[in-house]
Specification:
The complex is a heterodimer of chains A (186) and B (703). In chain A, a hairpin with a 7-residue loop joins β3 and β4. Helices cover 26% and strands 43% of the residues of chain A. The longest helix of chain A is centred in the first third of the chain and has 25 residues. Chain A has a six-stranded antiparallel β-sheet. A four-stranded mixed β-sheet of chain A has the order 7-2-1-9. With 186 residues, chain A is an alpha+beta fold. About 3% of the residues of chain A have low confidence. Chain B is an alpha+beta fold and 703 residues long. Chain B has five domains: 149 residues, no CATH class; 132 residues, 2-Layer Sandwich (Beta-Lactamase), CATH 3.30.450.20; 103 residues, PAS domain (Beta-Lactamase); 74 residues; 142 residues, Heat Shock Protein 90. Chain B has 18 helices and 17 strands. Chain B has a five-stranded antiparallel β-sheet. In chain B, β14 and β15 form a beta hairpin. The mean pLDDT of chain B is 83. The chains are: A alpha+beta (186), B alpha+beta (703).
Chain lengths: 186, 703
């Protein structure tokens, strides 16, 4: 009996680990990579790749006409010895992914509000994969500083019922908060 | 606690209103706020649960401790809670059921099919229009391709107008615009994307796009040239969908999307509304229960105070008043109660004062009775002692000091000498009630003593009951004093009357002897001398007796001064050294000074020793022992002999005149001794020894 108890404890532990791995793998993430920051004519321009992966439930919701608004936030700050970091630049933009039932196409609206139509969702997502030379604002040429970049699904634009769906990870579509030192990017 | 509950209730209501608003107006309250509100509500519900649990525990503890009002509060809380919980729960269940069914009713197959059909219709219409554009664009491309390039602009314009096309543009595969024709000549054409150009160079390519709320069709067709293997130019046609069709199609699409969105959110909606309703239910119930505590306490508080005050009054605290906070019936009750307690307090104070006065009077009476030399007994009509003093117990010689409540005659009947008293009481009191004062005296004689007791009975009528006050006096001493005084008077008169003729009698007898001694014969002379001697001796004896009478009756002139009693006793004992009597003096201190008349005390001692000596006349080993004992204020000496003693009959009257056991005694010796001791404020006690003989103790003050 005691032996069985030991086994059951181990099985429970294995189950918890596997479930955690599964739950993590099931999460939809936005992966950001190849980030480059250019400084030209007093402005910082940010370029990067992002790959958005959506679970079937999210894809299904998208196909039902629920629009997906993504919010990208870029922030440059400098360390302050005596308090909070000093904010140099803060820029946000939205892009939208939506299925147009009438046209039977996925519509992508980019940061310049340019709309593109695609027959399948992957092409639409691919359209959003490369952000090129995003003007994140005027600044002096910083030798030191931290760039923070985060992309996430803006739940404000989701139907209210889905917004309040606390434990549904289908709607937790976001990237990690990526931090880069400006010196490294240059 | 009351304010906490009220505040919490208000917070709950505010949270509920915000929650309801956030559900109905998504613009007003953002999703984050809604989520925050939900969390606040849940925290609030938990707080309420904790608060109510604490209240319930406190209430149960109060009930267990039997605190006044706690049971009433519990009943009221239960009543209020029941009144609220049952209807609210019914409403909740009905609402949830109704809500679930309502949400389900929004989505049915017919609506969805209709919307799907509408949307398909729109899609087909667009397809047809696009097909039409395809035909037109192809026709235009062939026509342009068949003509000379120099006239392509005119032909493009003609064909555009002919086919009612909004805009037609000839573009090179290198994105160079060769010719433009449009309804609005001022507007620059929108260049196709590179991928569109590549795709169009391979054949017809059409697409529909939504721009600024309008649907546009775009068609791309390569312009075929015989001389070229691969087309170098493309014709781009832009044609808007007619507004009548576009608006309807977009409207259908919008409704369809809304429906799909709603359908997709169906389960979430149910959860949210059910959760909100549950929160509302919990908040309503818990707020009602919390409020019920406040209301119950408010209702039960004055009643509890009244109950507590009543309990205090029952304990005798009559000055208890309750604050009058309300003007309702309870307030009136409290007011009346306060009025009652004030009156009760006044009455109690008055009663207390009367009781104190009574206590003082009783204490006064007790003091008087205690210090009264007469015994006082109050009997009721049933012969039961209601009140008595200690003196009464002493005179009647009760074994119990407290004889209150005992049957008087039954208690004294244990002593036979009181039989006359019982008979008298039965006769004059208990046989028939009487209302006159009456007194009687009786003698009690026992072996050692004789007492004279006088009882005065006074009836006391109170309402229907009659009590009897018995005033009992031991008049033995008084009687003895009166008797002694009477004897003194007799002795004085007797001495006066007898002493006067004694001297002439003696002188006459001596003169007769003197006159006749020469005239009589020897025989007669002898008889005469014998007779005259007898007369003289008897007269002398009478004189001695009369002197003793005089001594007894005459007030003593005292010559008080300090002297050593031991020396006095030793001197007296010295006088009896020549006799056969052994006299022993036991004394620890050789000097015992007392202030008294030394001659009188000597007379007392000699008298007592003489009495002892007389009693020892027939004793073979006569012995007298004198013990002296002293303390700070008193000195006492005891003269004890082993003689024949005094008879029991004489003991009670031994100090009275003419009471003597001796044949030749006058019976005045001990009476004179007693008188001298009394005049010196001393005490004399005479008793028979256990074995034989007599002990006489004399106690004298030192000063």
């Amino acid at each position: 009996m005691h032996y069985l108890k030991k086994i059951s404890n181990k099985l429970a532990l294995i189950y918890i680990v596997l479930f955690s791995i599964y739950a993590y793998s099931m999460e939809q993430i936005i992966e950001t990579k190849d980030i480059s920051l250019d400084y030209k004519q007093g402005h910082y321009f940010l370029s990067y790749y992002q790959s958005i992966s959506l679970l079937s439930e999210a894809r299904d919701a998208l196909s039902k006409g629920i629009p997906f608004h993504f919010l990208v936030t870029a922030k440059i700050s400098q360390k302050n010895k005596y308090g909070f970091n000093r904010l140099i630049l803060l820029k946000e933009y939205h892009f939208e992914l939506k299925y147009k039932s009438l046209l039977q196409k996925y519509m992508v609206s980019d940061m310049n509000d340019q709309k593109s139509y695609f027959s399948n969702i992957d092409d639409a997502i691919k359209k959003l994969s490369y952000i090129e030379k995003w003007d994140i604002g005027p600044s002096i040429d910083l030798k030191e500083g931290t760039l923070e970049l985060k992309t996430k699904l803006d739940k404000k634009y989701l139907p209210k019922a889905l917004q309040i769906n606390f434990n549904d990870k289908s709607w937790n579509v976001e990237s990690e908060l990526i931090k880069y030192e400006i010196g490294e990017l240059n | 606690m009351r304010y906490i509950i009220t505040t919490v209730a208000f917070i709950g209501i505010a949270l509920l209103i915000l929650l309801a608003k956030s559900l109905s107006n998504s613009e007003l309250v953002s999703s984050d706020t809604f989520r925050l509100l939900l969390i606040f509500n849940i925290i609030f519900v938990c707080s309420l649960v904790v608060l109510i649990t604490i209240q319930i525990i406190k209430l149960l503890q109060n009930v267990k401790k039997e605190i006044v009002g706690s049971r009433l509060t519990m009943r009221l809380v239960l009543s209020f809670a029941t009144v609220v919980i049952i209807p609210v729960t019914i409403v909740y269940l009905a609402s949830v059921s109704f809500l679930t069914k309502s949400i389900e009713s929004w989505f049915n197959v017919q609506v969805e099919s209709a919307l799907q059909g509408g949307l398909s219709l729109g899609q087909k219409t667009l397809d047809i229009l696009l097909k039409d554009i395809e035909l037109k664009s192809k026709s235009m491309a062939y026509s342009i391709g068949a003509t000379d390039e120099s006239s392509s602009s005119e032909i493009l314009n003609d064909l555009r107008e002919k086919f009612s096309i909004q805009e037609a543009v000839i573009i090179g595969t290198n994105s160079k615009i060769y010719s433009v024709s449009g309804e609005y000549e001022t507007r620059l054409p929108v260049l196709p994307k590179q991928e569109d150009l590549i795709r169009a160079s391979e054949g017809f390519f059409g697409k529909i796009e939504e721009i600024d709320g309008k649907i546009f069709m775009k068609a791309y067709v390569p312009i075929p040239r015989k001389e070229l293997l691969k087309p170098e130019k493309i014709i781009q046609i832009t044609q808007p969908i007619p507004e009548s069709i576009s608006d309807i199609a977009l409207s259908v699409e919008s409704v369809y999307e809304d429906y799909q969105t709603l359908a997709y959110s169906r389960s979430s909606l149910k959860i949210i509304y059910t959760m909100t309703l549950t929160l509302v239910l919990l908040l309503a119930i818990l707020s009602a229960v919390a409020a019920s505590f406040v209301i119950s306490r408010r209702i039960s508080e004055p009643i509890s105070l009244l109950a507590e005050a009543t309990r205090q009054i029952a304990k005798g605290k009559y000055n208890k008043t309750i604050p009058e906070n309300s003007k309702d019936e309870l307030g009136l009750l409290v007011k009346s109660f306060n009025s009652m307690t004030v009156k009760l307090n006044d009455a109690t104070n008055s009663s207390e004062k009367s009781r104190e006065r009574l206590e003082i009077a009783r204490a006064f009476l007790d003091t008087i009775l205690t210090h009264l030399s007469s015994g006082v007994i109050v009997l009721d009509s049933n012969n039961v002692v209601r009140l008595h003093n200690i003196t009464a117990s002493k005179i009647i010689k009760f074994k119990k000091i407290n004889m209150t409540g005992v049957r008087f005659t039954h208690e004294i009947s244990k002593n036979k000498i009181y039989q006359p008293i019982i008979k008298k009481l039965n006769t004059i009191i208990f046989s028939k009630p009487f209302l006159k004062e009456e007194s009687f005296e009786f003698n009690t004689k026992n072996k050692d003593n004789e007492e004279i007791i006088r009882i005065q009975i006074t009836p006391l009528k109170r309402e229907k009951n009659i009590s009897y006050i018995l005033v009992i006096d031991d008049i033995s001493e008084l009687t003895k004093g009166q008797r002694s005084q009477a004897w003194s008077e007799i002795a004085r008169r007797l001495a006066h009357e007898i002493k006067n003729p004694l001297t002439p009698i003696q002188l006459s007898a001596e003169r007769i002897e003197h006159k006749l001694k020469d005239k009589l014969s020897d025989e007669d002379l002898i008889m005469l001398k014998k007779s005259t001697l007898t007369i003289v001796n008897q007269v002398q004896a009478l004189k001695t007796m009369v002197n003793e009478f005089s001594e007894y009756s005459r007030p003593t002139a005292k010559n008080i001064k300090a002297f050593n009693l031991v020396v006095l006793l030793e001197n007296i004992i010295e006088l009896y050294q020549s006799t056969t009597i052994k006299i022993t003096l036991n004394v620890t201190n050789k000097i015992i000074l007392i202030k008294a008349d030394e001659n009188k005390i000597r007379q007392v001692i000699i008298n007592l020793v003489e009495n002892a000596k007389d009693g020892l006349a027939k004793e073979k080993n006569p012995e007298i022992i004198i013990d002296i004992v002293e303390d700070i204020n008193w000195v006492s000496f005891t003269i004890e002999d082993n003689g024949m003693g005094i008879s029991k009959e004489l003991m009670s009257r031994i100090f009275e005149p003419y009471v003597t056991s001796k044949a030749t005694g006058t019976g005045l010796g001990l009476a004179i001794v007693n008188k001298i001791i009394e005049e010196h404020s001393g005490k004399i006690d005479i008793r028979r020894n256990k074995n034989k003989g007599t002990s006489v103790s004399v106690k004298l003050p030192k000063k």
